[in-house]
Amino acid sequence: MADRLPRKVYEQELARLQAELVVLQEWVRAERKRLIVVFEGRDAAGKGSTIKRVAEYLNPRVARIVALPRPGDRERTQWYFQRYVEQLPAAGEIVLMDRSWYNRAGVEWVMGFCTADEHRRFLHQCPIFERLLVEDGILLRKYWFSVSPDEQQRRFQARLEDPMRRWKLSTIDLESISRWDDYSRAKDEMILYTDIPEAPWSIVDSDDKRRARINMMAHLLSSIPYREVPLPRLQVPERPEGTGYRRPEKNPGNYVPDHAATLLP
After folding, report:
1. For residue 80, which phi and psi values (nearest 5 degrees)?
2. For residue 50, what is the enclosing H or E element?
3. What is the pLDDT of residues 133-145, one digit of tens each?
4. pTM score > 0.85 for this model?
5. What are the residue ranges of helices labelled H in 143-262?
6. Residue 95 contacts by C-beta under 8 Å, 6 or more apart in sequence?
């Protein structure tokens, strides 16, 4: 693995790229484009933390994160892609997918949550589905975050020992350790069938999360021919003279207690 990117270098470039993502957002909004960014990879590969940095300064009315739970009883009877179609962006929107329809090619297949026929049908239909999206004008970008077994093990252990991140672990996550080769074979087959010219896969080496975030953002920006959109000129007006309004007396019962004051010496 390459040496970890120094924090100062990382933070400077992260700020620059996040500023460019805001420019991209304004272009998507003004030009009424539709952008989907798919984040896939093994458990603890760094998808969630990258999505967090991508979305940090974006307008949630323009860019939204989609992280669907497991399908319910009714959804399991629908066409597999149906609930994902509901999440597709409208004009001027960006959708960041924290896992996606590729669940069927990964965890569902490896853990036995779908049948062999359902898995085979997915590998056949997915390229067709994605070609339809791209043909309709949607910008589709797909990223696979690749993490080594040793680094995944280290991250799992760190989460287990951190009460603030313990919720990120599940029994299925931990079982992925013993099923490493099964997941590897499933990923290889998935990419073989779904790495199409209209929507190719981009692999992100994510053993160093700082490098992964920077590399993914830079690649995304370089893949879209966006431009800076002139923003309307705004000016904060002078505050007008008062009209005689008097603020009512404070009612202590309506105010949140000043907990911060208890922290001071």
Report:
1. -55, -40
2. helix 47-55
3. 999 999 999 999 9
4. yes
5. 149-161, 171-178, 180-194, 209-222
6. 35, 36, 37, 63, 64, 66, 87, 88, 89
